[in-house]
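G., before I forget:
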Amino acid sequence: MIESFRMHPMNIISSIIKLFKDSIVFILLLFVFNFRDVSFFIKVGRAVFLTFIIVRLILIVIEWSKTTYEIKNGTIQIKHGVFQRKQNSIPLQEIQNITWRTPFYYRWFGITSLRLETSTTSDTATVQLNAIKIDLAEQIEELATQYKTEITEGRDELAEEEANSENINDDSNSSHERTVHFIPTKRDVLKASFLSFSFLGLIPIIIVGYTQIEKVIDIDSQVEGAFSFIMSSWVLIVIAIILLITAAVGFGVMQTFLKYGKYEISSDDDRIFIHRGILNERSFSIQKTNVQAIRLNQSPLKKLLNFTDVQLISAGSEENGDDISSLYPFLPSDKAKGLLDELLPQFPLQEAVNKLPRESLYIRLMRIPWLWLVATGLILWFKKEWWFISPILFLTTYLSRYFTYRNTRFSWEGKTIQFKTGGISTDIFVTNRKKVIEVYTEQTIVQKKLGLATINTVNRVKPVHHEKLQDIPVMESENFTNWYQQRINEIKTE
Amino acid sequence: MSLLNEPIHPIAKDAIKVWRISNTISQIIIILVGLGLIVSSIYFDWYRWIQITLIILLAVDILMSIWDIFIEPTLLQKYWRYDVNNEYVQMKHGIFKVKHIIAPMTKVQYVNTEQGPILRKYKLYTVEIGTMSSSFSIPALPEQEALRLRSQIAEYAKIKEVENV
């Protein structure tokens, strides 16, 4: 139980920063670009804008003081609204993901932002605590996770346990011990930084910086001077290029280290914790039972460096509303399987064995290459001299079709189903029968002639995730529906 | 182990008439709008290529309407199958692409019946079944069957499975 509290006053400052960030266009328009313009229109605009800002500033402070949070009887209660009081309560047991974000300047004040997510789709389903003291955040997290375990341990004792839950916290800590499963080595991160291409991020910064400085000093003529100086000697050219590359690589390595350097994947009995970041810390925790499926993704470059991106598909992970959150994008492939076995034993990974039949290749080659047709049409119409793009596109389309056919594997054994697809990149999708909430098969007339069908699984996220496997033999698609039907034997009903 | 049976229940024969009427109405509207556009394109002297495109589109639509009104309803009705038991809702339909949906009864969240003016004329109902992922409807069922199905699904769907174990 946590007494009614407000957000840390730092929230006001970050709201104000956000307000100015959002209205930057107006500020530039009214006060910078038209600085000398004193026309009536601009004057009115300035007056309106200033009033708006003042009203907003006052409202920010009032809103902050009128928004209170309270945790009691296993629910978070939020009271907010200036003129119209609103109350929103969310049961702690519904909370599935917890995300901490601590920008570096937040750490100076000992605060953090906390986001609690439930699996419901409505917008009142998420609690965003923008700025709270770190110890308070810890308490809230403790309560949210604690409550969940109490529920699973015994529903009947709940009422009694609620009353003295503080004492129990200490006792039942044994089941909450976190095991650290993965910390990347320096070598991993170094390898990852070359791959992440983040050094390309240097280019826009240079361009922006260049145009900024250009306004002040006439850089063009100076650069020209420097340029002709450099060009005058081969040695200097080589040195310049080396310097540039070192700078780019250094930038990339630094970026990757800041983001993925301090990284830790750990878990306790019912949650997975991901902690990352050196400057801006971020930690994310997800309930194991909330993971609906996993996906292992390897781009060609990642294959080369032997990395796998392990992704968890779950209801509402990450702040951008994405349903997929990465466990670690540069996981050494040989460690991936072991890690998943430890973290999520309900999704056993084994080599999928079933291949696609020959007919499947025929139908894939027969499908109309719309992209190529449209692109060729556009090229012929507008830019005839780019004709060579057309055959290249044609070749890549058909090669990728061939390789996708060759690399596709699928299997459903016991409770698990696995699709492996991808032409030059590889994509493995694993889920289990209980997590699949619907299946459907499709068969076009051509597929029917060739004895093929397409199967689809639907998993519950926010709202759903579809996964498709094209052109498997009809026999197998019937096996698939029969396999799904066995679901009835493994679910428990209330 | 109970193997999944292919769905066998067809929908009402009158569905053909219902679809025929509704498709005729929408085709008439489309053709009228198309004609209106062509007349005004000539009257207001629009670009030539606009006129030609409009005429081609209308011609294609008239050809399509033959399919829409005379052929499609019959085939749709012929291939529509559904099945409901205490474990699964199944639906199988489609002309060029046959789609077979299997949804567990424990995931069904609501069921309702709907009836528009044309359906009412033939005493038919559409049963809509909503799950977590989507909602599907079984179109054009005779009144008795629709109401029986609705209460049956409502009864079956009361059982919910334990989440997150």
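The longest strand of chain A covers residues 464-473. Chain A touches chain B through 28 residues (CB under 8 Å).

More on Monday.
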